[in-house]
Amino acid sequence: MKAEPSSAAPPPPSPRRVIGILLSLALIRIELHLLGLHRLYTRLTCRTRALQEASEPDSGSNPGSGTEPEHARAAAAEIRRITDGYAPRRVNCLVEAIAVTRSLHRRGLAAELKLGVRTITGRLQSHAWVEYAGEPLTDEAGINRMYTPFEPPGTQRPEPSGDRL
Amino acid sequence: MNVLLSKRITVPEHVLFRRIENEMVILDLDAERYYGLDDVGTAMWLALTGIGSGRAAADRLLEVYDVDRDTLEADLVRLLERLSDRALLVLHEG
Description:
The structure holds two protein chains of two kinds.
Chain A: H1 15-34, H2 37-54, H3 68-85, H4 93-106, E1 112-120, E2 123-132, E3 135-136, H5 143-146, E4 148-149
Antiparallel strand pairs in A: 1-2, 1-4, 2-3
Helix pairs in contact in A: 1-4, 2-4, 3-4
Chain B: E1 8-10, E2 15-20, E3 23-28, E4 33-37, H1 39-51, H2 54-64, H3 69-85, E5 90-92
Antiparallel strand pairs in B: 1-5, 2-3, 3-4
């Protein structure tokens, strides 16, 4: 019996798309060097908040509903395929996550850049990933349980200093 | 009482923090560096940032830890100095 070609396999990205993504990755590296993580992170989190506010129920749109999560996943997967298959050097998780977040923001999707940490046998490990409507896009579903995400500036609250001391 | 303990304390915008088990992980987005505090440092950080005052934090910690005030305040001042030197906390007048 002949194997059926997989209908789930996405078509290869166009050369123009590959070049566009590779250029955006290079630009992000330069921006990280010149502007620093703080500015980039603040801009992205502000944009996420603005998009979330714009998609609140009274604005007529429902965040994370309909086909938006599928579009978000597909867009993130395309960027991952390009970084995995076409980038001349390894793309670290932060650069990739920024690229995905920006790409989704341009489509009007309130993607969230997440920075998280965990300790493995006493050693601190950090990771960056992207979520949309609470679901990880650039990593497996449980990544936000494997790493503890930081809250964005302005939303993190000091823990009460009561019982836990 | 050390003058540092009379200051108001805030966490600047470039600093993110999160507790993992008994340790506090602090991320300085400007320096792109992580810092860790052990369980005692975490208790101090929580008291300092939760209450926003060194003196009130010392009072709160004295309720929990069996330690004399001079020792605790000296430790708290040392941590405050390190954190403010690295711009992980901001100290304000009164």
